[in-house]
Amino acid sequence: MYTVTILNNGEWVAPGTVIYLHAFGRHDPVKIVQNFFLVQGRGHTILIDTGIDNLEGYLTEEQIRRCVSAPSRTTEALLRQAGVAPEDVDTLILTHLHFDHYINARLFPNARIILNRREWLYVLMPENKRYAPRVGFPREAFGWLANEAWERLELVDGEVEVLPGIRVIWTGGHSPGHQMVTVETAQGIVIIPGDEIYMYENLEADIPIGYYYNFENVVAAMDLIRGMDAIVLPAHDPKVHELYPSSKIG
Length: 250
Description:
- This protein is of the alpha/beta class.
- Helices cover 24% and strands 27% of the residues.
- It is globular and about 45 Å long.
- It holds the Pfam family Lactamase_B.
């Protein structure tokens, strides 16, 4: 069994039309958080997504004034607070290659890096550059993955048990190679859905996300999540910290 620790870089803001499908009319900016997840157990130290530093740098002064109640925290500082140094991480699982989920990959020099094959190939294909502009897909981390980290990069397909009790499941809705992660804990299965949902409300009110690659796959992922008797930990919902104030499961 594993324990899952919720790490939170801080608060920021997303357009309502990103969080909620446009047809539902939820257009106002939405306050979100930046969660990523430390998994420990069975002799392993695993990170699911990398967090992102300096969240304030992505916000306007007005957004900071209205929505940010405390300074953001760096990924490395959060890990050290949890008693983990970056070099201790032996497995890094990336749900997808949007900048806020992979940008700090270079912090982890000893980790095997698990990524869906479709995601890797799609983002790197020059003909897809209009869908993966540099502003949202910084190339420096891709270059690092393809060079310094090449021997540690593991491309997977479909559903794979990457460690005993930890599975990745291709969903392909939010991005072509998006994958969710399930973790066995003493409290039951934990699902880390990446960005197939942003908020619990996406599930509860049956409102799909507004930023998607394949709408049918988004809906299928939502149904899959509902069909599993599991603890769900969205990456961007502040409610996660209300439901799990200790930030630890299992």
